[in-house]
Automatic annotation (TrEMBL), chain A:
Entry keyword annotation includes Lyase: no
Membrane topology term: Peripheral membrane protein
A Pfam family that the UniProt record links to this protein: ABC_tran
Gene behind the chain: ftsE
Protein name: Cell division ATP-binding protein FtsE
Protein family per UniProt: Belongs to the ABC transporter superfamily.
Location in the cell: Cell inner membrane; Cell membrane
PANTHER family: CELL DIVISION ATP-BINDING PROTEIN FTSE (PTHR24220:SF470), IMPORT ATP-BINDING PROTEIN (PTHR24220)
UniProtKB/TrEMBL annotation, chain B:
Self-association and partners: Forms a membrane-associated complex with FtsE.
The protein's name in its UniProt record: Cell division protein FtsX
InterPro entries membership: ABC3_permease_C, FtsX, FtsX_ECD, FtsX_proteobact-type
Gene that specifies this protein: ftsX
Record's keyword terms, sorted: Cell cycle, Cell division, Cell inner membrane, Cell membrane, Membrane, Transmembrane, Transmembrane helix
Main location, first listed in the record: membrane
Entry function: Part of the ABC transporter FtsEX involved in cellular division.
Membrane-spanning segments: 33-53, 181-201, 234-257, 277-299
Segments forming domain FtsX extracellular: 70-161
A Pfam family this chain is assigned to: FtsX_ECD
Repeat is among the record's keywords: no
ABC3 transporter permease C-terminal domain location: 184-299
Membrane topology of this protein: Multi-pass membrane protein
Length: 216, 309
């Protein structure tokens, strides 16, 4: 599903985040990506939805080589990838409902379909009763769950999460990780970058450890 | 997806963008109103000038464009010679038709229109000469005019000739100058509208940077991101058009009474005309197009550079 072949990424300042990364993540897998700060976890995740392009090597998503993907087609790639960020990236002037609805609105779904799917996603993350609330009135854990609902509302085949439990306490972190496991069980390929090693060990899924821009 | 489904989806996306743009304007009513007023005034000024020119031209429409010569006969010309002179003038080259106004007719007209009965009653005899109003066949070159004047002057009993051609030419030149000036003003103010809307939308884009980034992050196409901003431009332009229409109508109402009074003093039944339905529609469409153009320029330059971090 996700294949990296000799991928290198060098930033304009000379900083080399990835130095020949090779890996393959199969459809339906749940993978944790670990490594120290600066080991290239974020860069690795950013290359998949083409938030950045690699300096060398190739990234293949579902058999499509991303280096051949034109700029115009990038939005359609991103629609197949649900993304979750440590800082949630919610729109603070919109309600929870509108935030979760945005990916569906972008794809032009009919109104009734949107409402039905948004409620299903909010129900899944346990926030159905907060749909009228604004993100600032929610706790950190709740905001993260809104971000997750937004990522899964279009039922994308791939889910990427960059430090999704970074700011949460252990109990909440476990809850969030169990959510990801549930999505993975219905076939979503899930990649989670995290440095919460005890929790990752406890869950026991495949783990890719990055060290100095390579898979160790 | 069926063609009809795709069409419905496309329309739905546009309706959503249009409504959300309207919602954004409502969220900051103060700024929106000021921008709208600026656009309205910028549109109203050239429109008002054009309207004034139209009204001047229609006030002059009593003139059919062909010049006329008033040939005054000597006071002592006997009535039969007056008629004969009129016929001789009519026979000249370059004269289309003539009307003889006898001293008695002139006096009657003067009394009826100018309300000077009392003054005229003081006079013993009719002081007015006979006049032959000659309508020329068309506009003449300077040399032809000269020749015609000479021939008229050479006729017996002719005392004085007044040709209104030069006056008409001066008026034409003035109107032409006015129209050119207005065209330049309209061009500059149109540019102003584009710049005002473009700058407003550029600021709007800056303020909503994170929203744009997030939208692009989750798969919003450039067209999707662009659309609400283009509709913002359209709404601004349209609202500006409405404001300018109101300014024009109110302005016409305000000057209507004094203008009619002035026209009455010139024995004219002229009444100033408003912009009319087609004029208002033109204003609205102009506003809309300028708004769209301004938005397009702002969006084209700034939106592509915003990429999710």
């Amino acid at each position: 599903m996700i294949r990296f072949e000799g991928v290198g990424k060098r930033y304009p300042g000379g900083n080399e985040a990835l130095r020949g990364l090779d890996l393959h993540i199969k459809p339906g897998e749940l993978v944790f990506v670990t490594g120290a700060s600066g080991a290239g976890k974020s860069t690795f995740l950013r290359l998949i939805p083409l938030l950045e392009r690699p300096s060398r090597g190739s990234v293949l998503i579902d058999g499509v080589n991303l280096s051949a993907l034109r700029r115009r087609r990038i939005p359609f790639l991103r629609r197949r990838i649900g993304m979750i960020f440590q800082d949630h990236r919610l729109l603070h002037d919109r309600t929870v409902f509108d935030n979760v609805a945005l990916p569906l609105v972008i794809t032009g779904r009919p109104h009734q379909d949107v409402a039905r799917r948004v409620r299903a996603a909010l129900d899944k993350v346990g926030l159905l009763r907060r749909e009228r609330a604004y993100p600032v009135t929610l706790s950190g854990g709740e905001q993260q769950r809104v971000g997750i609902a937004r990522a899964v509302v279009t039922r994308p085949p791939i889910l990427l999460a960059d430090e999704p439990t970074g700011n949460l306490d252990p109990a909440l972190s476990r809850e969030i990780m169990h959510l990801f496991e549930q999505f993975n069980q219905v076939g979503v390929t899930t990649v989670i970058a995290s440095h919460d090693l005890p929790l990752i060990e406890a869950l026991g899924h495949r783990r890719i450890h990055l060290h100095e821009g390579r898979a160790a | 997806m069926s063609a009809r489904g795709a069409m419905r989806m496309w329309l739905g996306q546009h309706a959503r963008a249009a409504i959300s743009a309207l919602g954004q304007l409502r969220r900051k009513p103060g700024g929106s109103l000021m921008t709208t007023a600026a656009i309205g005034i910028a549109l109203a000024l050239p429109a008002a000038f054009l309207l004034i020119m139209d009204n001047i031209e229609s006030a002059m429409s009593g003139w059919d464009g062909t010049p006329r010569a008033s040939v005054f006969l000597a006071l002592d010309t006997p009535p039969d010679r007056q008629a004969a002179t009129a016929e001789r003038i009519a026979a000249l080259d370059g004269i289309r038709e003539v009307t003889l106004i006898t001293p008695a007719e002139a006096l009657a007209e003067f009394q009826a229109t100018a309300g000077m009965d009392e003054t005229l009653a003081l006079l013993d005899a009719n002081p007015l000469p006979a006049v032959v109003e000659a309508r020329l066949a068309g506009r003449l070159e300077a040399a032809d005019t000269e020749r015609l004047m000479d021939r008229l002057q050479a006729l017996p009993h002719v005392e004085e000739i007044r040709l209104d051609q030069t006056w008409m030419q001066r008026l034409d030149a003035l109107l032409e100058l006015g129209n050119r000036t207005i065209a330049i003003i309209a061009l500059l103010l149109g540019l102003t509208v584009i710049l005002v809307i473009g700058n407003t939308i550029r600021l709007d884009i800056e303020n909503r940077r994170s929203e744009i980034e997030i939208t692009k992050l989750i798969g919003g196409t450039d067209a999707f991101v662009r659309r609400p901003f283009l509709y913002t431009g359209v709404w601004y332009g349209l609202a500006g058009g409405v404001v300018s229409g109101v300014i024009l109508v109110v302005g016409i109402l305000a000057v209507s009474a004094p203008a009619t009074r002035l026209a009455a003093l010139y024995q004219s039944a002229f009444q100033p005309a408003g912009p009319g339905v087609s004029g208002i529609l033109t204003l609205l469409v102009t506003g809309l197009l300028l708004g769209l153009l301004g938005a397009w320029l702002a969006v084209g330059r700034h939106l592509v550079t915003i990429e999710p971090q």
